[in-house]
UniProtKB/TrEMBL annotation:
GO molecular function term, any single one: aldehyde dehydrogenase [NAD(P)+] activity
Identification of the protein by name: Gamma-glutamyl-gamma-aminobutyraldehyde dehydrogenase
Entry annotation: catalytic residues: E264
Domain spans labelled Aldehyde dehydrogenase: 26-489
Cross-referenced CDD domains: ALDH_GABALDH-PuuC
Alphabetical list of InterPro entries matching this protein: Ald_DH/histidinol_DH (IPR016161), Ald_DH_C (IPR016163), Ald_DH_CS_CYS (IPR016160), Ald_DH_CS_GLU (IPR029510), Ald_DH_N (IPR016162), Aldehyde_DH_dom (IPR015590)
Length: 494
């Protein structure tokens, strides 16, 4: 049970200027810093170090040295497991501090962040810690005169670049399997959400992770991120963020050492509601949260509502009714259901989408405005836009904000066509009481995730990844481990 007075005590705790976390401790960069501005009130509350390419190279060199001398990569699996389990415990012991720090940085409502950030990160570290000593190599069914052994070896140095929407959760999706398999990591968090990941690195050291195995470099994507992705000594890049940056990473790989790049990118996920859905009011309520939680800054957000024409008016009215009950405001206030937009840039981008929607003849059925400007923070009304046509900007481009685009369909075939008319293929949902139709839709919709009669809510046991331009890798589940191991064959003549 969260206690508002404890949260209020933490909300203005001084955060000292942050350095880079390299080789198990805090290191200076070349003196350049970046203000950390809280989206809660628009005020700077600490600074980050802007890592220069030379700082990134230093972090990579430490990660390489740690990998090569085997302090972690050749540690007994049972010992690695113990350290990662201890880290999970430390995350839980520090959950409220981590969550409040993260919310001050990125604006997610604490009610959600407490579970989605430290809660999920602890669970993810525990899951991969428990898995790491259950991964076996193989003996190939060869001619008996030889022995073919397939070893699973760590890849070496992993570069990880993550976004600002759920830094601890997404960070843990990369770090936990990478570390579990014995790799060293250099992590570059987003400019507007680095603080909780820097703290995580400190907790990892406290848990017993050897120095140099996990390094965190902060600063601009176009400088520190680029240097990491161009490094000749990084073996694999894992990334979550926008398609534009994902494309650059592939170019950097081609220009450097052909490192593998696993990309988790954006979405424009269709939430498809048939008139035969069992409980339309429940569907409307869940659909509202499926787009508006964390102000729509969720990669899998159901941002396109495709609704059967016969129930359009009734259903949109129900979504609007539920949306109007959601309180937008200070994300550290426990009565808030929707917090702040991450940055002024992001907010202005969202409002630009509203302007273009009006210009394209769409109807703003609810919201559309910046609110609570007097706080200095970045808040936006949950917004519902109807009369969206399939070539309109709102039907095709990811807003990554609290904006729901509504389209209609008449038949199941049309629903599938509309759903797939997108460069993206991350998430989706179908609401129907017809079991056969649900299975046909699961088969027909091109997406990495199809919800049926729900939206959101998943756990570490199932993979998350996209198809088409939503990405090419999976986080979570045992499948994610494949990204962090190389297969090495030993061919032994007997
Ligand atoms: P972004 O691509 O702008 O930034 C992501 C990270 O890349 C940041 O750390 C940034 O500093 C870094 N970066 C930026 N330019 C770089 C460059 N030239 N070289 C190397 N690194 C660089 O994305 P964002 O705005 O932080 O995040 C939002 C996007 O992330 C949305 O598109 C969202 O859908 C996506 N996302 C996807 C998932 C998923 O699992 N598929 C999850 C969350 C968010």
């Amino acid at each position: 049970m969260l206690d508002q007075s404890k949260i209020d005590a933490l909300r203005s705790t001084r955060v000292p200027p942050r350095k880079l976390f390299i080789d198990g401790g805090w290191q200076d960069g070349n003196g350049e810093t970046l203000d950390v501005i809280s989206p809660i009130d628009g005020k700077a509350f600490t600074t980050l170090t802007r890592a220069a390419p030379a700082d990134v190279d230093r972090a990579v060199a430490c990660a390489r040295a740690a990998f090569e001398d085997g302090r972690w990569s050749r540690m007994a699996p049972a010992a690695r497991k113990k350290i990662l389990l201890r880290l999970a415990e430390l995350i839980e012991e520090n959950a409220l501090d981590l969550a409040v720090l993260g919310v001050r940085d990125n604006g997610t409502e604490l009610n959600m962040a407490i579970k989605a950030e430290p809660g999920s990160a602890a669970g993810t570290f525990r899951y991969y810690a428990e898995a790491l000593d259950k991964i076996y190599g193989e003996i190939a069914p060869t001619d008996p005169s030889v022995l073919g052994l397939v070893h699973k070896t760590p890849v070496g140095v992993v570069g990880a670049i993550v976004p600002w929407n759920f830094p601890l959760m997404i960070g843990a999706w990369k770090l936990a399997p990478a570390l579990a398999m014995g790799n060293s990591v250099v992590l570059k968090p987003a400019e507007t959400a680095s603080l909780s990941l820097l703290r995580l690195a400190e907790l990892a050291s406290e848990a017993g992770l050897p120095d140099g195995v996990l390094n965190v470099v902060t600063g601009q994507g176009s400088v520190a991120g680029e240097a990491l992705a161009l490094s000749m000594d990084v073996d694999v890049m894992v990334f979550t963020g926008s398609g534009a940056t994902g494309r650059r990473l592939l170019e950097y790989s081609a220009r450097s050492n052909l490192k593998r790049c696993y990309l988790e990118l954006g979405g424009k996920s269709p939430n498809i509601v048939f008139a035969d859905a069992h409980d339309l009011d429940e569907a409307a309520k869940v659909s509202a949260m499926g787009i508006f939680r964390n102000s729509g800054q969720v990669c899998v957000a159901g941002s396109r509502l495709l609704v059967e024409e016969s129930i359009h008016d009734e259903f949109v009215a129900a979504v609007a009714r539920h949306t109007e009950t959601l309180k937008v405001g200070d994300p550290l206030d426990l009565s808030t259901q929707i917090g702040a937009v991450n940055s002024l840039d992001q907010l202005e981008g969202n409002l630009g989408f509203i302007e273009s929607a009006v210009a394209e003849g769409n109807t703003i059925a609810l919201g559309g405005n910046r609110i609570l400007q007097e706080t200095g923070g970045y808040y936006m009304e949950p917004t519902i836009v109807t009369d969206v046509k399939t070539r309109d900007r709102l039907a095709q481009q990811e807003v990554f904000g609290p904006v729901l685009a509504v389209q209609t369909f008449k038949t199941e075939e049309e629903a599938v066509t509309l759903a797939n008319d997108s460069i993206y293929g991350l998430s989706s949902a179908v609401w129907t009481s017809n079991l056969s139709r649900a299975h046909r839709m699961i088969a027909g919709v091109r997406a990495g995730l199809v919800h049926v009669n729900t939206y959101g809510g998943a756990d570490v046991t199932v993979p998350l990844g996209g198809v088409k331009q939503s990405g090419n890798g999976h986080d979570k589940s045992l499948h994610a481990l494949d990204k962090y191991v190389d297969l090495k064959t030993a061919w032994i003549k007997l």
